[in-house]
Structures are given as structure tokens and as C-alpha cells.
UniProtKB/TrEMBL annotation:
Protein name: GTP cyclohydrolase 1
Gene encoding the protein: folE
GO molecular function: GTP binding; GTP cyclohydrolase I activity; zinc ion binding
Functional pathway: Cofactor biosynthesis; 7,8-dihydroneopterin triphosphate biosynthesis; 7,8-dihydroneopterin triphosphate from GTP: step 1/1
PROSITE patterns: GTP_CYCLOHYDROL_1_1 (PS00859)
Source species of the chain: Vagococcus acidifermentans
Keywords in alphabetical order: GTP-binding, Hydrolase, Metal-binding, Nucleotide-binding, One-carbon metabolism, Zinc
The UniProt record lists the keyword Chloroplast: no
Subunit record text: Homopolymer.
Reaction(s) this enzyme catalyzes, per UniProt: GTP + H2O = 7,8-dihydroneopterin 3'-triphosphate + formate + H(+)
GO BP terms: one-carbon metabolic process; tetrahydrobiopterin biosynthetic process; tetrahydrofolate biosynthetic process
GTP cyclohydrolase I domain residues: 9-185
Gene3D superfamilies per record: 1.10.286.10, 3.30.1130.10
SUPFAM superfamilies attached to this UniProt entry: Tetrahydrobiopterin biosynthesis enzymes-like
Length: 187
């Protein structure tokens, strides 16, 4: 994010504060526009990144075992309300041609996909597509469980409710036993 973009955000935040009746010169709000611009630079960092390059592929001894990284914490912003949704992602794949990705790269992929305005349903698919692009596995399973602040603090006001989304490709989509094994591993 460049300085011009940050200035636009800062002025927009001031306008929102004025519109709700706040005094933008009040002590507690003086630095708020700058803080929000800095926060947006961080939480929307993937918007300006054109590609996920933080990837390392290794050779495995096997290409028929499930690799699962679960309970990956993430934060994203609902593109409908610009309020956070957050929770855990679970990503599994079965390697192809004995190609595996470094384990730490899977949480990095989740973060990369989450750092943009999004909806959970699409985020689930985006993670799977990115993994597919990087290692072309035999199959992928992604599950996300998240709480949405747009449901918790406004609208229906149901804090603590979670949304679960799933996406399967390749052998996870066609093999019920693999899908069941994935789901059982999440409990």
C-alpha cells in the first residue's frame, strides 16, 4: 500500500467518524485514522500481492498417505460488511508424484488467501486452488470453521455461532472413505 492509498483511507476514516457524530480532534481519535490505515495495510496485504511465492516442494517416500495440517488459526474480513471473521482452517492433501510442500507453507497459504476481503465459502476454495497450483496433489480437502462478527455483533446478533465450510477435489471428492478419514481426523 502506498502513501496515497494510506491518505485516502485516513481521510475516509475521518469522514466516517464525523458521519457518526464523533469529534475527530478528540484525544482518543486523533491517531485513529493512521492506525486504521496501518491495520488495513496488514490485514489486506494479499490484495496487492500478485502471487504466492513462499513455497518449497520436497520429495516424499510415499504418494498415497494423507498429509493434514489442522487447527490453523486465521483472520479475514467479510467483503459484505468489512467486519472480521475468524477461526480455524484444516487442510489435507494426498501427494502426487511424491511431491510434498513444506508444512509451514500450508498455514502461509491460508494467511495469503485470508488477507483480503472475502467470504468463507470462497476462502475455502481459494486455499484448495492455491495448493493445487503449487503441488498438483491427487486430492485436497479443506475445512474451515469460523465465527463471523457480522452475525455476532450486528444483524441477527448470535455470538458464538460458527459456520463450517468444506471443499474437496480429486480423490477426496470421489472416495467416501478418504473423505470420512479426513472428517474423523478433525474431531
Amino acid at each position: 500500500m502506498n502513501s496515497e492509498q494510506k491518505k485516502i483511507i485516513q481521510e475516509s476514516v475521518k469522514n466516517i467518524l464525523r458521519a457518526i457524530g464523533e469529534d475527530v480532534t478528540r484525544e482518543g481519535l486523533i491517531e485513529t485514522p493512521e492506525r486504521v490505515a496501518k491495520m488495513y495495510e496488514e490485514i489486506f496485504s494479499s490484495v496487492t500481492e500478485t502471487d504466492f511465492n513462499n513455497c518449497k516442494v520436497f520429495t516424499s517416500l510415499s504418494d498415497d498417505d494423507i498429509v493434514l495440517v489442522k487447527d490453523i488459526p486465521f483472520y479475514s474480513m467479510c467483503e459484505h460488511h468489512l467486519l472480521p471473521f475468524y477461526g480455524k482452517a484444516h487442510v489435507a492433501y494426498i501427494p502426487s508424484n511424491k511431491q510434498i510442500i513444506g508444512l509451514s507453507k500450508i498455514p502461509r497459504m491460508v494467511d495469503y488467501c485470508a488477507k483480503r476481503p472475502n467470504v468463507q465459502e470462497n476462502l475455502t476454495i481459494q486455499i484448495a486452488r492455491l495448493l493445487e497450483e503449487k503441488v498438483s496433489p491427487q486430492g485436497i480437502a479443506v475445512a474451515i470453521e469460523a465465527e463471523h462478527m457480522c452475525m455476532s455483533m450486528r444483524g441477527i446478533k448470535k455470538p458464538g455461532s460458527t459456520t463450517k465450510t468444506f471443499h474437496y477435489s480429486g480423490c477426496f471428492k470421489t472416495d467416501r472413505d478418504l473423505k470420512r478419514e479426513f472428517l474423523e481426523a478433525l474431531t
